[in-house]
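User: I'm writing a short report section on ligand binding and want a predicted complex to refer to. Could you take this sequence and flavin-adenine dinucleotide and write out the structure as tokens? A short remark afterwards would be nice.
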Amino acid sequence: MTTEHFDIIVIGTGGVGSSALFHSAKRGAKVLGLDRFPPAHDRGSSHGQTRLIRQAYFEHPDYVPLLLRAYELWEELQSGFEEQLYFETGVLEAGPVDGELVPGVLQSAAEHDLDVEHLTPHEAHARWPQYWIPEHYGVVFERRAGFLMVERCVQAHLDGAIQAGATIRTGVEVQGWQPFGSHPQQGYAVTVDGQLITADKLIITAGAWSPTLLPDIAGKFQILRKPLHWFTADENTYGTDTGCPSFLFEVPEGHFYGFTAHDGRGVKAAKHSGGGVVADPLNVDRSLDESERGEVQNFLRRYLPDVDADSPEDHTVCMYTMSPDSHFVIDRLKLFPGVAFACGLSGHGFKFTSAIGELLALLALDENVPYQLELFAADRFESG
Ligand SMILES: Cc1cc2nc3c(=O)[nH]c(=O)nc-3n(C[C@H](O)[C@H](O)[C@H](O)COP(=O)(O)OP(=O)(O)OC[C@H]3O[C@@H](n4cnc5c(N)ncnc54)[C@H](O)[C@@H]3O)c2cc1C
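Assistant: Sure. The structure tokens for the complex follow:
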């Protein structure tokens, strides 16, 4: 029996995998993408209408070069796609002056010479009366920030990949993979619904299912259940085209974020911190938890008082794949250097997916990677 053979197989064609597929195909590789679910589905981590994108990264200044590349690549992707992918609403960030968020944003902006405005709460309120901000908080406004339409971005990458010659198969489950031949460099065999397909290289981008496909590092990750909520809001006050920014707040109850009212769906808001542990990502509980929604409603009543927090419109449930330090893991497997992967994006990875997909394609094709990858190295969790 002959098996099919590809230059690269990408396992998982969600946020990161769709981009890896696109960039691999664009570089001329014969590439196959495999996914259990159809394109831009709502069963993993890349759904729910919108994702924040911003540059002055409070999480760590070392993300900024990758972010700047992500911005370039989103723009390039837009030029070949009809529907708008990115809305530059600006993002308002507020929190304690000695907290994690505002000092982190200012540090990243200073290190990378990024354009941010540092405001007093009074100045911010005068400009955007839609927000109430405690007097002792620091406030930063990033103009070059806003949101990406998440499902459209995945679809745009997949469309581009197909145009560049990629093969995509969905509705298929990858049961596992193994090196074939006497030396790992010879290639890899992937078991898909009981059949073997081979490739010179693998890219594993399986999101919340990564631990099952990357057993070496499996025990390090925790999957969290993350609900998103939409609320009724006046489009003239909180609408995307009104000059109202999207937001990220650090408050005593945790980190909360949200988006201007868009496409008639109201303001979307969520809590970034916390979340229940998911034992089986295929069977995550998607029902509404009133107490979780109550936390978001209390946040809105206080800080976005003109949103109708008592009129919830919709909710959906998504998953974060948390690494131990909340930083990404993007690397090759030590024992099998032909396997590149990205996982543990820890709830802040979507904005980067255009650039992470390119990076994975470069790793798989043994091309030069123009970034420092120490922050993302898998061996940082090894003891000793
Ligand atoms: C509620 C929420 C809000 C977020 N907000 C933001 C934000 O504002 N800004 C931001 O930058 N990031 C945000 N993120 C994070 C970001 O969305 C994720 O980091 C990113 O989408 C993860 O992409 P992924 O490709 O790793 O996972 P996914 O998109 O889930 O892709 C994994 C794919 O692998 C497939 N797969 C897995 N195992 C198998 C198998 N065995 N066989 C076949 N297919 C398989 C799955 O079906 C899936 O399609 C948020 C995440 C959530 C959940």
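A remark for your report: Residues 12-17, 34-37, 44-46, 48, 51-52, 173-174, 205-207, 209, 226, 228, 270, 318-320, 345, 347-351 surround flavin-adenine dinucleotide (CB under 6 Å). The chain has two domains: 4-46+151-218+325-381, 91-143+222-322.
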